[in-house]
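REQUEST
  id: r-88c1
  op: predict_structure
  target: Phenylalanine--tRNA ligase alpha subunit
  payload:
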Amino acid sequence: MPPSTQSADPHRSDVPDPSAASAGGDSNSRRTAPEHTGPDRPGADRPGSTRAASSGAASDGAALEGAALEGAASKRTEPGRPGSQRPSSQRGDPAPVDPGALDPDRLEEVRVQASAAIATAGDLDELAALRTLHLDGRGAPLALARRALGALPQSERVEAGRRHNTATAAVRAAYEARLAELTAERDARVLVEERVDVTLPGTRRPRGARHPLSTLSDHLVDVFVAMGYEVAEGPEVEHDWFNFEALNLGPDHPARSSHDTLYVDPVGSGLLLRTHTSPVQIRTLLSRPLPVYVVCPGRTYRNDAIDATHSPVFGQLEGLAVDEGITMADLRGTLEAFAQALFGSGLATRLRPSYFPFTEPSAELDVACFACRGEPARQPCRVCSDEGWIEVGGCGMVDSNVLVACGVDPARYSGFAFGMGLERAAMIRHDVHEIRDFVDGDVRFGLSFGTGN
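RESPONSE
  id: r-88c1
  status: 200
  body:
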């Protein structure tokens, strides 16, 4: 301590703090009273009274300390108050040892009661609770009897232990037997409630069928791909130039009227739903180097009312070949192979003169009726209406104006084009009388053609 704090003060006295004594009750925790030199300190106005005041304060402090200790002790032992001492049973202390618990009659009574209770257990949970109550719990009678062995004289412990072990073994055997019974009952119940017949066939969702038009289109495309053609596709919303002007259809052509063509807003934009797949041929000539051999399948649209033979939406397949030295003979040979792939081999074909703005000369392809073969003995025929021929589609040599519009020199290159409606070909091939059957969405319609899986 620094020297300045060691100087004697005639008015200083060490007085215990009553509040510290009452709170802690420990004499070592008493603090030195603060130094008072003011006139309000008792005895400060009387000379020579310092020692007497200090002695009186010490006596008062000791009295307060003793009262605090007694109060703390009374709080710890007063029952019913928070923090008071609890009975031994509330603290989880073991029950008193009862040597009489090992009496043969009492052990027999405990065994009988425990065995009877275990035998009446209704389920595994109840059995587990009874095991704790009668056998393994801290308060179980057999557990209390086991603790009483230590209180017996040495000469009685062996026999008492033997009796206790016999009773415990009997109760445990009853428990194990009931456990086996309840476990077997539970397993049998689970087998019944959660039974799954693995011999039943699985629930299978029937698969759909490919549409006959898709099947026919893929078949015809494969025929032309085998001949060296490529597949070309284009947008269904087309521009007027690709759909009409580039194909040599003038501004006054009836096909450009809204009575036949579905135009797309805004008015005057020149956009429309393509009326044929011929615009794909124009795009191909503009984008691919020559020579060109393409087949163009796709969906087309026209402003037609639906009936037995007409639909505003229908499929088309068109072909185009542009190369040096192409003639009508090449067109005739190509269509011959196409007709055989569509209707079978051995059928005659003919080219009947016709007119199309984008081909010159133009023709209609007719195929001998595959049902009656044109023989009167097989008529009347519903397929060809007794005519002996079936109209399949149009064809011809590509008009020179179309080649010029696509930047192709007609003096060097020539070509042919052909097209057909897929619905008409499918109706002829499968003897379907209503074009609406193709768009009704009935999966059974496709299954009838063997196109289901």
